[in-house]
Amino acid sequence: MSADLVQRLENAIETVPNFPHEGIMFRDITPIFLDHLLYADVILNLAEFSRGKVDAVCGIESRGYLFGIAVAVAIGVPFILIRKKGKLPPPFVAEKYDLEYGSAEIEMREGQLKPGQRVLIHDDLLATGGTTEAAARLVQKQGATVSQFSFLIGLRGLQGEQKLAQFDAEIHKILEY
After folding, report:
1. Contact between 173 and 148 (Cβ < 8 Å)
2. What are the residues whose beta carbons fall under 8 Å from the beta carbon of 69, sequence distance 6 or more?
3. Which residues are tagged catalytic?
4. Residues 86, 116 contacting (CB under 8 angstroms)
5. Could you tell me if 16 and 24 are in contact, meaning their C-beta atoms sit under 8 angstroms apart?
6. Cis peptide leading into residue 62 (ω within 30°)
7. How far apart are CA 112 and CA 74, in angstroms?
8. For residues 157 and 127, what is the distance between their CA atoms, to the nearest angstrom?
């Protein structure tokens, strides 16, 4: 990991206290997109982690698309969308997961992954790991294997990495807070 990249990201990412709820420290990644060189270096970092190790990249709606598509292009593999319920036409596979209050569901088009493919699941942030765990189950339902997870940011103390340990996959985070 480049100390320079970490420093540049820390300088770019803005911390917004009490958003979207009291007590939350929101990490606004949008300033990264104002600096094309910084964005390119993030993609390079993420691509280096996965190059030669995966056959497809799955990105979780919607911020997982911001980096995931570029990583897939950089390493020359397909990109598959994982979306919120009701956003994809059939046929699709779905997976429910628990939220702090209630539950949610995500979907993936059926047949876009092939049995035996090695898959990277990418999202911008790893917090509790619930959405990412559900995404991994979608990948497994299609007979593919989750071999890697990557995130721009990981939040310490929320047990997300422990939740993903069951998949025996590499985990890469550029920053941790």
Report:
1. no
2. 57, 59, 79
3. 63, 100
4. no
5. no
6. yes
7. 19
8. 9
The letter for the amino acid at 3 is A
Whose tokens are 């493919």? That residue is: 117
100 vs 8, 50, 51, 131, 145, CA distance in Å?
33, 31, 35, 12, 28
Peptide bond before residue 89 is cis, with ω within 30 degrees of 0: no
The angle subtended at Cα 164 by Cα 159 and Cα 126, nearest 5°, is 60
What's the 3-state SS for 120-170? EEEEEEECCCHHHHHHHHHHHHCCCEEEEEEEEEECCCCCHHHHHHHHCCE
Whether cis (ω within 30° of 0) applies to the bond prior to 91 is yes
Q: Which two tokens stand for residue 17?
A: 């206290």
Specify the 3-state DSSP secondary structure of 55: coil
- Token pair recorded at residue 126: 């790893």
DSSP state for residue 26 in the 8-state scheme: E
Give the integer Cα–Cα distance in Å for 107 and 87.
8
Place of tokens 């721009």: 152
Q: What is the mean pLDDT of each run of 10 residues along the chain (177 residues)?
A: 93 96 94 98 98 98 97 98 97 92 93 97 96 98 98 95 97 97
